[in-house]
Amino acid sequence: MKTKVLVTGANGQLGKTLAALKSQYNTIDFTGTSAKELDITNSVQVAAYFKENQIDWCVNCAAYTAVDKAETEPENAENVNVVGSKNLAIACAENNIVLIQVSTDFVFNGEKSVAYTEIDTTSPTGVYGATKLDGEREIAKRLEQHFILRTSWLYSENGNNFMKTMIKLSKDRELLAVVADQIGTPTYARDLAETILKIITTNNKQYGIYNYSNEGVASWYDFAKAIFEESNIPIKVVPIKSEAYPTPAKRPHFSVLDKTKIKTNLQIEIPHWRDSLRKAIANNHE
Question: Which SS3 state, helix, strand or coil, does residue 79 take?
């Protein structure tokens, strides 16, 4: 009997990455839905879908992730990130389904100078982080069988992300200025997807909140430099301060995540971000 896994937000970069790994996991029967097929903000639709379909695990990749836009569209961000998460949690609780929720380092304010653990105080500085945190709380309140995976700086060969943007910009520029005083860790979507699939295939029951990113530490400037080095793109990259590139939403200055808990509970080795970037560049054919 195959494990039935529903992936919401299947058209996003993590959803597409999970779909690309399908062939390697023949014990899993994947179903991916976009907002057209399943509107997670509609509680009636969610309840009906979960009742009509056999689901063992739900991986919620659906999210409002436009960090700056969220400052002027708080209702839209709340609808997807909070109401949508709540609807999924209720449906999972009613149908005995395990929910894996993808969350973010933006639940922290970035004022620490050492890596954040899962039990550190949350204090988001913008609408995006606040709605993602409220979504976490809705799930924890309604469903025991849940995993919340907080990740950072997600990128892949799919969709819009920092790696793809840098490569695109380099095609018609000789110089790029990139913020150097925001510190975190890039996360390759494939590594996160494989971690999610390990939770499912091992039928892990150590529910709760987990941090997951690649190993190592970088600034956006470091990340950009590495992207161009691995891609053999000759472009000058200049470090700048955040103040030189103001954005509507404040970014955490430091959001490195401590992965001790997930490494211990899942018995996994997490690759260094630079090693994973090398793989992503090799797999990027655009």
Answer: helix
